[in-house]
Amino acid sequence: MKTKIFVDGSEGTTGLRIHERFKDRQDIDLLTISPELRKDGAERKKLINASDITFLCLPDAAAKESVAMVENEKVKIIDTSTAHRTNSDWAYGFPELSLEHRTKIQKGKRIAVPGCHATGFIALVYPLIKKGILPADYPISSFSLTGYSGGGKKMIAEYEAKTRGREYDAPREYALSQQHKHLKEMKLITGLNREPLFSPIVADYYSGMLVSVPLYADMLLKLHTPELIQEFFADYYKNELFVKVMPYGAEADKKGFLSGIDCSGWDGLNIYIAGNAERLVLSSQFDNLGKGASGAAIQCLNLMLGCRENEGLSL
Ligand SMILES: NC(=O)C1=CN([C@@H]2O[C@H](COP(=O)(O)OP(=O)(O)OC[C@H]3O[C@@H](n4cnc5c(N)ncnc54)[C@H](OP(=O)(O)O)[C@@H]3O)[C@@H](O)[C@H]2O)C=CC1
Ligand SMILES: CC(=O)N[C@@H](CCC(=O)OP(=O)(O)O)C(=O)O
């Protein structure tokens, strides 16, 4: 029997991507809402409760509203917003982190898909804390490059406007108040004692991300060289389809540069470990619309359905 899926927010950046990924799938029966009714509460409620699984691709407040509309207890929810990521009743949709994460997704009825910046940061920091390599009180910092589609329809329109200010031509740093909405999940999921110092930068290209975490080698509790840390990550993620750990020194193939755009259009995440005996740089490269949003959401769906983990995804 086909699984009935409804995408609440199907006209948005993430919702459209999720829709696209179903076009060749025979196992899915997509319930659609007419565009003029897409914000009509009664119509959304009807479709949510008629579905087996509803994806929420909405701003946080609307996502919470949708969850409150669920009356059919069989309905499962996959939420791409920030609204439920730090709620322990929800599974955090990052199966590669641990068997516990994977199992909670497979058996769960409420799944929160990680934030895009948080995905890159947590992929690097969670394993180090879990395995006692990085102390939980490390004064950690991170910067993150992202394409402008990360800001949804509004930011896409700003960047693609016929006339726009010259500030859009260059990369722009934001979240300078140090209150980015992903900080809470970065701290909670990794087990860090404090929220990281986090500096995101949005630039003039559509999609793709590079999230980096610099570390002092002598402040690690063990494995003090980039070579050993690379081996550690290669082993940690060795069975994963979606996370690839590059060989130590792989950035040399790119003339020493890592680009935010390399994984655009792809659903996997590459990890680079670079640096020297004193200072390391750990980087995650992926697509904010892929492993950073709709790709991760579909991966969670596949795990819940028990089908191929990469069904409908590009690797
Ligand atoms: N873009 C990205 O890279 C990522 C996005 N996310 C998250 O995914 C969610 C969706 O983001 P994104 O697709 O980028 O955002 P968009 O702004 O592109 O799309 C949001 C959609 O939700 C619709 N919407 C707003 N309010 C309501 C409502 N009350 N009822 C029904 N529909 C409503 C909007 O309608 P309208 O078309 O009229 O504007 C729009 O189509 C957000 O929570 C975002 O933070 C997560 C990871 C990455
Ligand atoms: C460029 C840009 O503005 N990006 C967004 C992140 C998009 C995202 O991951 O949003 P959710 O947390 O809702 O999933 C930002 O930094 O707020």
Query: Whole-number radius of gyration?
Result: 19 Å
**Secondary-structure-derived class:** alpha/beta
Task: Look at the structure and give the mean pLDDT.
Answer: 97
Architecture (CATH level 2) name of the largest domain: 2-Layer Sandwich
CATH domain class name of the largest domain: Alpha Beta
CATH superfamily of the largest domain: Dihydrodipicolinate Reductase, domain 2
Helical percentage: 25-40%
Low-confidence stretches: none
Question: Total number of β-strand segments?
Answer: 13
Q: Please outline the major beta sheet.
A: 7 strands, mixed
Subcellular location: Cytoplasm
GO cellular component, one term: cytoplasm
GO biological process, one term: L-arginine biosynthetic process
Organism: Anaerocolumna xylanovorans DSM 12503
What would your notes on this structure say?
This protein is of the alpha/beta class and 315 residues long. It has two domains: 3-114 and 292-305, Rossmann fold, CATH 3.40.50; 116-288, 2-Layer Sandwich (Dihydrodipicolinate Reductase, domain 2), CATH 3.30.360.10. The chain is built from nine helices and 13 strands. It has helices at 13-20, 41-50, 60-68, 99-107, 116-130, 152-160, 183-190, 226-236, 290-305; strands spanning 3-8, 28-31, 53-56, 76-79, 91-92, 110-112, 141-147, 172-173, 197-203, 209-216, 243-245, 269-275, 279-286. The strands form two sheets. The chain has a seven-stranded mixed beta sheet with strand order 8-9-7-10-13-12-11. A six-stranded parallel beta sheet has the order 2-1-3-4-6-5, sandwiched between helices. Strand 3 (53-56), helix 3 and strand 4 (76-79) form a beta-alpha-beta unit. Helix 4 packs across helix 9 (290-305). The longest helix has 16 residues, at 290-305. The radius of gyration is 19 Å and the shape is globular. The protein binds NADPH dihydro-nicotinamide-adenine-dinucleotide phosphate and N-acetyl-L-glutamyl 5-phosphate (X2W). NADPH dihydro-nicotinamide-adenine-dinucleotide phosphate binds next to helix 1, helix 3, helix 6 and helix 9. Residues 9, 11-15, 38-39, 57-60, 62, 80-81, 115-116, 149-150, 152-153, 288-289, 292-293 line the site of NADPH dihydro-nicotinamide-adenine-dinucleotide phosphate (NDP).
